[in-house]
TrEMBL record:
Family per record: Belongs to the CRISPR-associated exonuclease Cas4 family.
Listed name of the protein: CRISPR-associated exonuclease Cas4
Cofactor binding note of this UniProt entry: Mg(2+) or Mn(2+) required for ssDNA cleavage activity.
Cofactor(s), by name: iron-sulfur cluster; [4Fe-4S] cluster; Mg(2+); Mn(2+)
Domain DUF83: 6-194
Source lineage: Bacteria, Pseudomonadati, Bacteroidota, Cytophagia, Cytophagales
Function noted in UniProt: CRISPR (clustered regularly interspaced short palindromic repeat) is an adaptive immune system that provides protection against mobile genetic elements (viruses, transposable elements and conjugative plasmids). CRISPR clusters contain sequences complementary to antecedent mobile elements and target invading nucleic acids. CRISPR clusters are transcribed and processed into CRISPR RNA (crRNA).
GO biological processes: defense response to virus
Domain of life from the UniProt record: Bacteria
Primary enzyme class: hydrolase
GO molecular function, one term: metal ion binding
Length: 195
């Protein structure tokens, strides 16, 4: 088994998500969620429309975008994922770019950041090049592009989360719930979780 960025995001939301879904095998039925399904369809539509478009505005001074790889399926020893676009720059660095079926409201949600951190880890392993930023395209805000810095600590955090997920699964370990109790209100497992 390898993980996806969604596994990491769910685990960071609450470690018990991992236990209910992957130890007890209780599905969460996310396919009923309109935004999830619309986002997946949008991903396919964007890839068809923008295959040859090279983003020139996201490059650094002296390090423009020099290459683009679309719909990249990447793996490492713990994780797999499909990155909408992997951009390469003149300074040798790379960056993930991900489309979101969302409006930009002057804030980048932690779930979006975590997804970019996961992609950064995958890109570094597969391309052997530094990733220190990523980009989000908010399709419901006239395709606004937002840059997100990515540190070494960000990439280490997702690696450690991936290792924690395998510990829960391999040892059949029932973890503590999140301390952020407000998350329990919308959790799909709230009716079966022991507080």
């Amino acid at each position: 088994m390898t993980l996806t960025p969604s596994h990491i995001i769910e685990h960071l939301f609450c470690p018990r998500f991992t236990y209910f879904e992957y130890v007890l095998a209780i599905p969460q039925y996310e396919e009923k969620n309109y935004k999830v399904m619309r986002g997946r369809n949008l991903h396919d539509e964007r890839l068809e429309r923008n295959k040859d478009y090279l983003r020139k505005r996201v490059g650094r001074p002296g390090a423009p975008v020099t290459e683009k790889h679309t719909d990249q399926y990447l793996t490492n020893e713990l994780m797999r994922g499909v990155v909408d676009e992997v951009l390469g720059f003149g300074d040798g660095t790379m960056a993930p770019l991900d489309y979101k079926f969302a409006e930009y409201k002057d804030k980048v949600y932690e779930t979006y950041r975590t997804q970019l951190y996961c992609y950064a880890w995958l890109i570094e392993v597969n391309f052997g090049r530094l990733v220190d930023r990523g980009f989000l395209v908010y399709t419901r805000s006239n395709n606004r592009v937002v840059e997100v810095p990515i540190t070494e600590e960000d990439k280490l955090d997702v690696k450690q989360a991936a290792e924690a997920i395998f510990t829960i699964i391999d040892r059949n370990f029932y973890p503590k719930a999140t301390k952020a109790k407000a998350r329990c209100v919308t959790c799909t497992y709230r009716n079966i979780c022991i507080k």
